[in-house]
Amino acid sequence: MSRHLFVHELESTADHIADASRADLQVLLRRAALVLRNVGGISLDPRTDEALTGLAAEMGTAKPDLVETIVGEWLVANAYLPVPRQLDEESTVDGNG
Question: pLDDT tens for residues 39-49?
């Protein structure tokens, strides 16, 4: 689960706290502690940070999501990650496998 989905889950639970069981709250709090313990920030040059902030706002996305996309695409483009397999309308699937 991504950090952003987890944040959404925390916020949703907080909005409906009366519906959450003690066990669910305990799990969420333990996961939150683990996420906070493992937070590793990235220091960016102020110009780079400003450019990313502006681009994220322009695209209507969160800056961490934008950075994740940029880094992921760079890793694929430079052969550090495999190219994701995509099916187009003209591809055939044989059903074996």
Answer: 767 778 889 98
Location of structure tokens 């959404």? 8
Half-sphere exposure of 45 (CA within 13 A, CB side): 3
Secondary structure string (H, E, C) spanning the chain: CCHHHHHHHHHHHHHCHHHCCHHHHHHHHHHHHHHHHCCCCCCCCHHHHHHHHHHHHHHCCCHHHHHHHHHHHHHHHCCCCCCCCCCCCCCCCCCCC
Which tens digits make up the pLDDT trace of 25-62? 999 998 888 877 777 677 788 899 899 999 999 999 98
Place of tokens 């695409």: 73
